[in-house]
């Protein structure tokens, strides 16, 4: 059994309009204290004609990215205080995370405008895999979510 179990994951709107705001709801349980050295890996695949292709990690942190030692990254908030957005959703800004139920409801995530050649490839179906792993240790939790993206059309004919 894993230390992190997800009971529910939902995102709206579907498809996600780019640029726009995605709202995420997650719930689950931490069955034990998480270790102090935790890495998070996000792998996003885009499907072309039914075949998955990995989306790279772009410089703005969008895509298939790795986030090493989350606890060390949270230490930056010790001096400045936990951001309001994290406090609002009951997300602690320190490690270790203690066992218990978590419920994040309607968390807004900004989906930025995509520039360059990538704009022609935005529309379509995707799968996001989130893996939480103890550094040099076992997988603590995993979540897979399927979603679709649709580029916002603007102009005199389109108002989406």
Descriptive overview:
The protein is globular, with a radius of gyration of 17 Å. The strands form 2 sheets. Strands 2, 4, 5, 6, 8 and 9 form a 6-stranded mixed sheet that branches. It has 160 residues and is mainly β. It has 3 helices and 9 strands; from the N terminus they run ββββββαααβββ. The longest helix is centred in the middle third of the chain and has 5 residues, at 70-74.
- Indicate the percent of residues in helices: under 10%
Could you name the CATH topology?
Ganglioside M2 Activator Protein, Chain: A
Strand content: over 45%
* Shape assignment: globular
CATH C-level class = Mainly Beta
* Average of the residue pLDDT scores: 88
Question: What's the CATH architecture name?
Answer: Distorted Sandwich
CATH superfamily membership: Ganglioside GM2 activator
Count every helix, treating DSSP H or I runs of 4 or more residues as helices.
Answer: 3
Radius of gyration: 17 Å
InterPro entries: GM2-AP (IPR028996), GM2-AP_sf (IPR036846), ML_dom (IPR003172)
Organism: Lymnaea stagnalis (Great pond snail)
Protein name: MD-2-related lipid-recognition domain-containing protein
Keywords: Signal
């Amino acid at each position: 059994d894993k230390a992190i179990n997800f009971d529910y994951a939902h995102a709206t709107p579907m498809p996600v309009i780019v640029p726009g705001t995605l709202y995420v709801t997650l719930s689950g349980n931490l069955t034990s204290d998480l270790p102090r050295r935790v890495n998070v890996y996000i792998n996003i695949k885009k499907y072309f004609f039914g075949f998955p292709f990995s989306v790279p990690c772009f410089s703005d942190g969008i895509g298939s990215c790795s986030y090493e030692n989350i606890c060390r990254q949270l230490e930056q908030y010790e001096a400045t205080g936990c951001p309001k957005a994290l406090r609002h959703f009951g997300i602690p800004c320190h490690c270790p995370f203690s066992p218990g139920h978590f419920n994040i409801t309607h968390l807004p995530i900004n989906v930025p405008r995509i520039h360059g050649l990538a704009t022609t490839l935005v529309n379509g179906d995707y799968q996001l895999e989130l893996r939480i792993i103890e550094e040099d240790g076992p997988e603590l939790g995993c979540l897979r979510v399927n979603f679709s993206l649709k580029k916002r059309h603007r102009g005199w004919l389109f108002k989406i």
